[in-house]
Amino acid sequence: MALERELKLALPGDLPASRADALISHLDRLPGAQARGERHLVNRYFDTPDLALARAKAALRLRYVARDGHAGQWLQTLKSVGVARDGVHVRHEWELAVHGEALELAPLIAACDMPATAALLRDEGERVVAQFETNFVRRLWRYVAGDGTAVEIAFDRGEVAVEADGLRHTEPLIEVELELLDAPDDDRDGQGERILQALARDLCAVLAELHSDNVSKAQRGYRLRQKVLGG
User: Fold this and answer.
1) pTM exceeds 0.85, yes or no
2) For the segment 187-197, what is each residue's pLDDT rounded down to a tens digit?
3) Which domain holds residue 103?
4) CA 216 to chain centre
5) DSSP H helical segments within the chain, as ranges?
6) Which one of 85, 102, 103, 134 is most buried, counting C-beta atoms within 10 A?
7) pLDDT in tens, 107-132
8) CATH number at residue 152
9) Is the dihedral of CA 104, 106, 108, 114 positive or negative?
């Protein structure tokens, strides 16, 4: 099990390209940051027809990652209930590679070491179907602070999509994620999260449209689903 800690910053969907380019240029020049290229990510989120996973504050995702022109890879991810405050999201996460464009729930259930979450997936797994999708290009940087704390900076631009009655309904998705990768002493004194907040302040000073956001991509998808389907 991994404990995911990230700070999310959202941007308006109609952000001009020139403003996005200004942020990218800043990150390319940021001391301690190294550009890591682009990824194209397609994420399908699954739930039961009555949204049993959402009610339990869990998320089940099948992800396709294409890396800088190389052959892509399929991954499945399960996230458990977490907390979000001032844009900082803390969740338990389990992620495994799969052989193709389909969930493989048995190994994911075996990997999940939270009994209630594993039981939920075991009981409801046969009923899950795709509910919505996020499709975006992710630009990456790895940032290392002076004390060795490592942060992945991701700039995502794309859309959230729901299929209904043969139509594809979309909303723009544009945000920055700052994920804590490694911190001295497992971040017992909270220095890692302080570095996330300091990075966020630096980016907000460059791009005033940025603001902390407690809404995850999965929550955005469920909201669009409700808007399109009415339930």
Assistant:
1) yes
2) 777 888 899 99
3) 2-229
4) 7
5) 17-29, 52-55, 105-111, 115-124, 191-206, 217-229
6) 134
7) 999 999 999 999 999 999 999 999 99
8) 2.40.320.10
9) positive
